[in-house]
Amino acid sequence: MSAMLIMAAGTAVSPVVFQLTIFVLAVFVGYYVVWSVTSALHTPLMAVTNAISSVIIVGALIAVAAGFGSGEGISTWAGVAAVAFCAVNIFGGFLVTRRMLAMYRRKKR
Amino acid sequence: MTLSADFAAVLYVISAILFILALRGLSSPETSRRGNMYGMVGMAIAVGTTFLLAGLGDLAVLLVGLAIGLGGVVGALIARKIPMTDMPQLVAAFHSLVGMAAVLVALAAFYSPDAFGITGPDRIRIKAYSLVELALGAAIGAVTFSGSVIAFAKLNGNMSGSPILLPARHLLNFLLVAAVIGVTIAMVLSGGAASGGGVLIWILIVLSLIVGVTLIIPIGGADMPVVVSMLNSYSGWAAAALGFTLSNVALIITGALVGSSGAILSYIMCKGMNRSFVSVILGGFGGDAATTGGGDREQRPVKRGSSGDAAFIMKNASRVIIVPGYGLAVAQAQHVTREMADALKAEGVDVAYAIHPVAGRMPGHMNVLLAEANVPYDEVFELEDINSEFANADVAFVIGANDVTNPAARTDPQSPIAGMPILDVDKAATVLFVKRSLSPGYAGIDNDLFYQDRTMMLLSDAKKMVEDIIKAL
After folding, report:
1. Is A5 at the interface with chain B, CB within 8 A?
2. What domain count does chain A have?
3. Which residues of B touch A79 (CB under 8 A)?
4. B206 CB-near residues (< 8 Å, 6+ apart)
C-alpha cells in the first residue's frame, strides 16, 4: 500500500487524503449510476442501498475482535449488537429487493 | 487462514465494484435481478474477507455467528411477510438500523482505539482526524437513527402525520448543531476515553439523537418521500465517515454511493413538488388542511356518480388513463384496480397508468404496488412520458391522488403548490375521481377539478368503489 502513497516527487501523501480521493471519485460514480436508475425502480433502489450500506458490518466485526483483544466490554457488545442489526438489514434488504424485482413483468404478448 | 492486508484491500475493492454493478443493474427491470445478485455476492465477499482478516477467537465467532443468525432470520422473515404498501415504513426502519450500527461501531472504535489502529505514536491518544471521522460517523448515525424512528412512526401511523412545530425550533436546531460541533472539538482536544474524554462521545450521541427528532417532527406527511430519501442519504454518509476511521475502501465507496443516491432521490422528490430542499427541511408544510379554505367550499356544486355510471362511461371509452395515488395504497386497492383494467381491456379499451414522481410516500412507491398487482411495467408511464396523452384520453380515472392533479399548480400563482408539475387529467374528456370525501389533500388546498362539468366524483372507499365498478362492467 505505502508504495502507492509515494508521489512522483517523492513526498508521501497522507492516508486520509488518499481515502478522500477514493471517496470523491465514488461520489461521482454514484451520481452517474443513480441518475441512470429508472424511476420505476426507485423503491427497490432504496431497499438495496439500505442493504449495501450495511457493509458497515465490516466495522462491527472488527469491533468484536477489538473488544476481545483489548478486553473492553463496551466494544465487544457494541460490536455484537451492530452485527445483529446489520444482519437484519442485509438479509431483509436484499431479500425484499429480490421479492420486489421479481414482480416487475413485461406485458404478455 | 490469515489474509495479507494488501490482498484483503483488493477483495474489498471487488465487493465495492459489485455494489456499483448492483445499482447499475437497476437501470432496467430486466438487468435488475442480476444486479441484486451481484450485491449479495459483494456483501458475502466483504463479510468473508473481514472474518479472515479480523482474527476472531472461538467465543467471538460463536457470538458473531449467533448475531448474524438471529438478525438474518428476523430480516428474512420481515422481507417475506411485509405487505408492499408498507415499504416506506420498512425502509425507514432499515435506515434506523444502519444509523444505530454506525453509532455502535463508532463507540467501539472510541473505546478500543488501538485495536482499530487509530491511535497516535503513544498508542493511547486517538489521532485528531480519526476523532473527527468518528464523531461525524456517530453524530450522523444518531441523527439517522432517531430521525428514521420518527419517520417510521409517522409513516406507520403510530404518530400523526401533521407537522409538530416547537417554539423557536430553528434557533433550537441551530444551538443543538452548534453544541454537537463544540463537543466534537472537545473530543479532539481530549484525545479519547483513555485520556479523560470518555463522557464526551455519550454527550455527542445524545445531542445528535435529539437533533434527529427535532429535525423530522416538523415535516408533514406529504413531504415524507423527501425525508425517507434524505435519511437514506445520511445512512450512507455515516457509513462513509466510519470507512475513513477503519481505512476500509469498501465502506468508503459504498457510503459515497448510498449518500449520493439518497441525495439524488431527495432532489428528484423536491423537483416533483417544486419545493426547495431547504423549505422541506424547515418543515411545517401540509397537514393543516382544516384551517385553510373557507366554509363556502362545501357549497359549490359537484357532480356525483355511482359505480354504474363510471362503468358505463369507461366501457364506452377507447382510452382510459388510471392515475393512482397514496389513497390507493391506504385502501389496498391495487389488485382490484388491475382487475378493473383487465375487465376494461376485455371490452377493447386501451388502459394505461400515469404516475406522478411524488405519488405515495416514497420514491417509486406506486410502481411497486402496481407491479405487485401484476400490472406489466410497460403499461405504467411517468409524468413526462404520458402528460401529453391526457388530451387524447376519454377518461382519466383518478384513484387516491389529489394534489398531483390540481390544475391550480398551473393556473394560480398564489397557490401553495404553484409551479408544481402536475398530471394534466383536466384535459381528458371525462375525469372520474375516486375519493372518500371532498376534503382537500395534504397541501391543504381545494382542487378545482372537483367542480368541473367534466368531472364525476365517485365518493366512496377506493377499494369498494372499484369492486362495484367491476361488478357493473
Report:
1. no
2. 2
3. 104-105, 108
4. none
